[in-house]
Amino acid sequence: MDSINKLELALGVKVSYTEKKHSLRNNVFFVKTIAGGNLKQCYVIKEYANSSAGNEVFIIDALHKQGINVPEVIWYDDKCIIMQYIPGVLLTDLLIDHKLEQEIWINALATWLRKLHGFMNISNQVCLCMSDLNLRNFIFNGREFYGIDFESVCFYPPERDLGGICAFILNNDPMFEYWKYGICNSLIKAYETVPGIKSFDRLDHEAIRCYLIEELKAAAERRESQRHYLNEKIKEFSCTPLMGSIL
């Protein structure tokens, strides 16, 4: 594997363990290394299949310098990034792990999103957003969240990210459970009350629901076996007026 050789040469270490991680677009590996003095360290390697590493390196570096939780880039070339390994729990796993109090990680996720949106916003209406809101792109270390995929970014109102991530929460297995609606409502409310970050205090809740519906439509296009069920849920969201709760 060429990227393993690159890591060993660039960092002066020996790889002792390699595990391929889930990724639809690229090859992503978790690796354990050993250096002089038996020093052990872990890294993540990302190999780009159809694009250059440069764009993601630029975004990650800019966010890292602003104190936003992202992995530090250790080394890179045009087709490969070696990044800091962030230990923790993926958001997709947090949803079904009821040992940790939900309020703790919901507030942490709201804070991370608020910081991201506050980093680069235009006229307090449009901001830097994550293109891919898959729940595997968020890691909770027990105190704070990290975002881990910035291969591409986009500029939208903050409601886009909130609606999108709520769609991923709701249609992730087990799909559309009652308690998941509570998580989504709590996340949006927590976002609106994050202290000390001046931006986007007033959200358009109807816009959040519109962006949620758009993400559900995209999911229905991808998943033929669940398309009918998702389309039924889309109809529910489209027809039901807002009554108290946000979703």
UniProtKB/TrEMBL annotation:
Domain RIO-type: residue ranges: 45-150
Pfam families for this protein: RIO1
GO MF entry, a single one: ATP binding
Chain ranges passing through the membrane: none
Domain of life: Bacteria
Keywords: ATP-binding, Kinase, Nucleotide-binding, Serine/threonine-protein kinase, Transferase
Annotated catalysed reactions: L-threonyl-[protein] + ATP = O-phospho-L-threonyl-[protein] + ADP + H(+); L-seryl-[protein] + ATP = O-phospho-L-seryl-[protein] + ADP + H(+)
Class of this enzyme: transferase
EC numbers for this chain: 2.7.11.1
Name assigned to this protein: non-specific serine/threonine protein kinase
Native source species: Pelotomaculum isophthalicicum JI
Lineage: Bacteria, Bacillati, Bacillota, Clostridia, Eubacteriales
